Amino acid sequence: MSSVKTTAHSVVEPTPTVKRIAGAIVILYALVTMIPLAWIFLTSIKSPPDSISYPPKIVFTPTLEGFCNLFTTRTRQTPDYIQALPAPSSTCDEITRSRNMVIAGPSNYWPRFGNSLLIAFGSTFLAVSLGTLAAYGFSRFRVPLADDLLFFILSTRMMPPIAVAIPIYLMYRQFGLSDTALGMILLYTAVNVSLAVWLLKGFIDEIPREYEEAAMIDGYTRLQAFWKVVLPQATTGIAATAIFCLIFAWNEYAFAVLLTSGSAQTAPPFIPTIIGEGGQDWPAVAAGTTIFLVPILVFTIILRKQLLRGITFGAVRK
Amino acid sequence: MLARATPTTIAVRVRGLSDRAIAWLFITPTIALLLAINIFPLIWAVYLSFTNFRANRPNAEVEGVGLRNYQRVLNDPDIWIAMQTTAHFVFWTILLQTVIGFALAYLIDRKFRGHAFWTTVILIPMMLSPAVVGNFWRFLYQPQIGLFNYIVSFFTGIPPSSFEMLGSVTLAPWAIIIVDTWMWAPYVMLICLAGLRSIPDYIYEAAEVDRASAWRQFWSITVPMALPFIMLAVLFRGIENFKMFDMVMLLTGGGPGSTTEVASITLKREAFESWLTGRSSAFAIILFVAVFGLANIYVKALNKVKQR
């Protein structure tokens, strides 16, 4: 009886035992994979001595010290000096004083984080806008040498970033674009637009031309048909492409470390430079890392369907 | 029906810009940006590679040196060692990522309960910044305090302070290979999963009717049908790992000695520390041509596999 039922859907359906074993191995792998990330989070709420104790502490008293150290710069003072100060005005103040230090001012973390936001979203917006237009152009019109142009666009990604960085560095110095957000936005847009054109061309190719033609018979111009018919149809593809561009621009390090030094620096080159007394302040580094990773984690979870489609899509197409 | 029958009439009746104008209007901005920020620098790099220009001395006289930069790069034993180191990394990371990625995809394709959720969990490392994560792995690898050494010694009994992942000549390359595999095996997994899902069920059903063993089905259906996808993943990872920079920079900075000095690190050192702009440009061009050439040969092989 039951065997009849299983063959009804497919003889290739794996047996429950197979499924259970497969599931167990995959879950084990996933849990092992998560250990470093869990450790980053745990370290961010440890005190500096707890973070470097051996054996590594799993049970400890959580503290905000890492976050306080991330957001502030501190100077060491004599106990007498600290005694003479008025009562601490915040938790961070209190923690800092208990280590014989006082808060000297805010750290550079939020400005760097802000740069990351500005540059990542700015370049994503530009890359996706330009990419959508170009993809539509390549998809719908006969462009001379289209295949060569498309391959050329893709091949710009094969160059190691450091290699192009030399002339870009010289060029930016010439035009006053080095260490500016605009320069970084333009650069990341250029890097991302090649991917955007390729991904979006695939998505737009799948939208039947008949839709626009019907709209044009109804009296729309080509531009109106593009705006009102094609764009809404391409939303999923545009979203998937945007996530990829955003992840790249958010995570990029090589260009950022070579072309920015101060005002336009993003978080990836900044986080490793967070130092406490006597070396890297690991709870502060972990706190900075945690905050930096959160947006991407949230994106990954909310948009996982588009993400899966986007990645496999890029792979399935030629 | 109507639309297909009347294309010429549409073209005549359409108001506004002509299709040709729109095509150019849409494509030109992208091409212009790429020309300005990708192609122009590339051509400039080619030009620089024939000169003795140094970026830290912009006012010194620039002289053409012919092919001397290329000659020097190709005769420099350090650069050949860097290329070997790179090849070593590319080989091991691709091997490990392909095996793990394919195995995971194969298991996830069994569609056990909750497979979608666990797939998302596994994907998280590849979404993160290699530099930021690499920096934190440096902490995990500390011999006295790091979690990695603690876990390894817990399972093997080797004292944790007796092996330094980042300080030892033999272990440092593996420290990087482990982190790279941790990050990118999920990527290979995704592409393989797309490949496995593209195999139609009826082929397995036919094999089942012929009483082919599971082992036989795996080697004569699953692997060959998924091969183009596996090869594609290898191509993407190969190109990326050839350019590997941020993770190595943050984990070891090329050390100890120069055991983990991959091509990108050498390039950075020559271009931005020694300021040998002309010479490093020549090296960059050689790298680009090498990747481009290898990728092209590989794509030809891939197309052959696809056609079978």
From TrEMBL, chain A:
It is found in: Cell membrane. Keywords: Cell membrane, Membrane, Transmembrane, Transmembrane helix, Transport. One of its GO terms (cellular component) is plasma membrane. The keyword Repeat does not apply. It is a multi-pass membrane protein. Residues 113-303 form the ABC transmembrane type-1 domain. One of its GO terms (biological process) is transmembrane transport. Signal peptide: none annotated. CDD domains: TM_PBP2. It holds the Pfam family BPD_transp_1. The chain crosses the membrane at residues 21-42, 117-138, 150-172, 184-204, 225-250, 282-303. InterPro entries: BP-dep_ABC_trans_perm, MetI-like, MetI-like_sf. Belongs to the binding-protein-dependent transport system permease family. This is Putative ABC transporter permease protein y4oR. It comes from Sinorhizobium fredii (strain USDA 257).
UniProtKB/TrEMBL annotation, chain B:
This is Putative ABC transporter permease protein y4oQ. It is a multi-pass membrane protein. It is found in: Cell membrane. SUPFAM superfamilies: MalF N-terminal region-like, MetI-like. It comes from the Bacteria. Residues 83-298 form the ABC transmembrane type-1 domain. Pfam families: BPD_transp_1. GO terms for cellular component: plasma membrane. GO terms for biological process: transmembrane transport. The chain crosses the membrane at residues 21-47, 89-108, 115-137, 171-196, 217-239, 281-299. The keyword Transport applies. Its main location: membrane. InterPro entries: MalF_N (IPR035277), MetI-like (IPR000515), MetI-like_sf (IPR035906), Sugar_ABC_transporter (IPR052730). The keyword Membrane applies. Keywords: Membrane, Transmembrane, Transmembrane helix, Transport. Belongs to the binding-protein-dependent transport system permease family.
